[in-house]
Every structure is written in structure tokens, then in C-alpha cells.
Specification:
The chain is mainly beta. It has a single domain, classed as Oxidoreductase, molybdopterin-binding domain (Sulfite Oxidase, Chain A, domain 2), CATH 3.90.420.10. Helices cover 9% and strands 31% of the residues. The protein has 3 helices and 11 strands; from the N terminus they run E-E-E-H-E-E-H-E-E-H-E-E-E-E. The longest helix has 8 residues, at 81-88. The radius of gyration is 16 Å and the shape is globular. The two termini are 27 Å apart. It binds the ligand Nc1nc2c(c(=O)[nH]1)N[C@H]1C(S)=C(S)[C@@H](COP(=O)(O)O)O[C@H]1N2 and molybdenum atom.
């Protein structure tokens, strides 16, 4: 049935599937860092403790996978990318972000999408610490885009003047990925 809550072509499911390319990375808090580089005034390197000490927020959102499933009312806790970008100071020419993950997965976003109110770099899902397969220790959640933009095991943000395709975007998936416009394939 058509619904205000479900974008076209999506079906709501209850249980979160687990999807990823490659393997689940090891997390070593001594070696782990989060970096921001590219078109920023102050390139940044944060330890995991420093990330966890940033102001936290909670976001309740629906997530929509490009394969056609949606999970409604997921609750994420973490830090807004905005807080981290404030520390780095994006240069005026920065308009896009390439998100980098452990294991080499990447995804691209307009900077303004990353700054939306309901975007979070999360470490908790539905009241529990994130499990390794869902992106522990840090996972991006961008509810306004198909779920392949919600990168798991995130390690950094590269700010760019021009859009550059990530892993799935290089393989035919849409660079913008708005589920309400059904931007599935490029
Ligand atoms: N690092 C990384 N993040 C990723 C992926 C991946 O392969 N590697 N897959 C994406 C895709 S295609 C989807 S649908 C979601 C799945 O998230 P889930 O396993 O928590 O349901 O993660 C996204 N984030
Ligand atoms: Mo996906």
C-alpha cells in the first residue's frame, strides 16, 4: 500500500538485514583514528575517546536500502558530523565529501547532506552499542539517502570541491541517492 512514510518502491521490514562488501574490520582503540582532510582549514585526527567525548545526539529515522527494503523508526546515538566539521573548518570551496571506511569502502555526499539535522556518526543503535556487523565502532547514518550512503566502520571525511564517486557509485548506483526521487541508478 502507498504510504506517506515509505518512498516509492520500498517495503517495510522488521528485522535489520546485514549487508557489506569484504570483511568486518578489527577495532584496535590504540590504533583507530578519525581523520578529516582535504579542503579544511585545520586537518584533524581524533582518537576514539576524543570522538566519544563530543556532544552526543539521538536521531530516530527510517532507513531505506536501494534493494527495496526499509526499516522504520531506527534509533541512533552518536555525534553530528557538523560537530566534527566545526573543529576542522571547511573551506568555502568544499562542496562534497568522500566518506572513507576501514577496508576501503567509500561513499560520496554533498556537504550539505552531511550537515542535515538528522545525520549522525553513531555508536549506538536502538539502545545498544552497535554490533560489529552494523558498523562498530562508528557508523554514519544519512536518513535522507539510500542506505549505501550510511557507511559502516567510518574512519574519515575528505572534503572536495568536485563530487567523486564512492564504491557503489562507481558501480552504477546513483551519486545523490534520494529515495523519494527513486535515485537508485545513475
Ligand atoms: N563500510 C561499509 N559500509 C556500508 C556497506 C559496506 O559494504 N561497507 N554497505 C552499505 C549498504 S549497501 C547497506 S544496505 C548498508 C547495510 O547496513 P546494515 O548491514 O547495518 O543493514 O550499509 C552500507 N554501508
Ligand atoms: Mo544496500
Amino acid at each position: 500500500m502507498a504510504s506517506r512514510r515509505l518512498p516509492p518502491g520500498q517495503k517495510a521490514i522488521k528485522k535489520f538485514p546485514v549487508l557489506y562488501e569484504g570483511s568486518i574490520p578489527e577495532f584496535d582503540p590504540q590504533k583507530w583514528d578519525f581523520r578529516v582532510w582535504g579542503l579544511v582549514e585545520r586537518p584533524l585526527r581524533l582518537t576514539y575517546d576524543e570522538v566519544r567525548a563530543l556532544p552526543t545526539k539521538e536521531v530516530v529515522a527510517d532507513v531505506h536500502c536501494v534493494d527495496g527494503w526499509s526499516v522504520l523508526d531506527t534509533r541512533w546515538e552518536g555525534v553530528a558530523p557538523r560537530e566534527i566539521l566545526k573543529l576542522a573548518g571547511p573551506k568555502p570551496e568544499a562542496r562534497f565529501v568522500l566518506v572513507h571506511c576501514d577496508g576501503g569502502y567509500t561513499t560520496n555526499l554533498p556537504l550539505e547532506a552531511l550537515l542535515e539535522d538528522n545525520v549522525v556518526l553513531a555508536w549506538r543503535l536502538n539502545g545498544e552499542e552497535l554490533s560489529p556487523e552494523h558498523g562498530w565502532p562508528l557508523r554514519l547514518v544519512v536518513p535522507s539517502r539510500y542506505f549505501y550512503k550510511s557507511a559502516k566502520w567510518v574512519r574519515g571525511l575528505e572534503l572536495l570541491a568536485q563530487d567523486r564517486p564512492g564504491y557503489w557509485e562507481q558501480r552504477g548506483y546513483h551519486w545523490n541517492a534520494d529515495p523519494w526521487k527513486e535515485e537508485r541508478f545513475a
